[in-house]
Amino acid sequence: MEAITRDFFLFLSKNNLLNNIAKKSGGSFAAGKIIGGTDFQSSIKFIKQLNNSGLSVTVDHLGEFVDSKEVTQERTAECIETIEMISREKLDSQVSLKMTSLGLDIDHNLVIENMTRILDTAEKHNVMVTIDMEDEVRCQATIDIFRQFKEKYNCISTVLQAYLYRTEKDLEDLAQHKPFLRLVKGAYKESAEVAFPEKNDVDENYKKLIKQSLLNGNYTAIASHDDQIIEYTKALAKKHNIPNTQFEFQMLYGMRNKTQYELVKQGYKMRVYVPYGLDWYGYFMRRLAERPSNIAFAFKGMVRS
To answer: Which end of the chain has less neighbouring CB within 10 Å, N or C?
Structure first.
């Protein structure tokens, strides 16, 4: 049933008709519930609410697989403006972005040029920029870009996905860079040739990666709504005397709000992933595909006052 549910929502995520309908709605249905707004400016009030409640934030302008040089430049300029507004508004916020939004599928030099402009601004304002991981075919290129920029910039991190067989080796290879890593289970549909097909195997690999990253001394973000993973991380940190300042938990905006606040009260750093933009429909469907329980979390978020 879980596999059927996952495939169903992944199928819906790629439905152009539904995506266009969602765009035409302007995001009013989702704003303040599962996304911050249709642009960063409209998201600021929600970010401030989260910050005032002790929650840190990372923001992401939704949209990927860009095939136009002009659009990548628009995305670059928008990201730079977002970083500047984060600094100006004194928000406790980082920025996440996908390499395909900056031209990964168009030209390597274009990605490097756009990312350089973004990171120059990020370093100036001390705002962390996380390179999001996409599907497996783009994994190596993404890691290579991260490695290249990590040699020059401090305000850069990336994401590794527990459902890929290769991730344990990737984590080992990145250890020399002392990276800031966000560990996730993974949201893209991948074949059994490259990814664990069974949830239990993904969960066990996720735990292995958390342990590997923390014992390597990396600052690690555990991005999960799974109580089992959260409790495992707490117990691991206690057992190995890993300070709370070496890791944080991350959850999606609008999901498991009560748990987010409880983690803050317990003395853990909790960061909320706040996406914004008109392309919210595909994002939302992929989040529902990740875990059936996300459907219940999302419903509660959508109907809350």
So the answer is: C
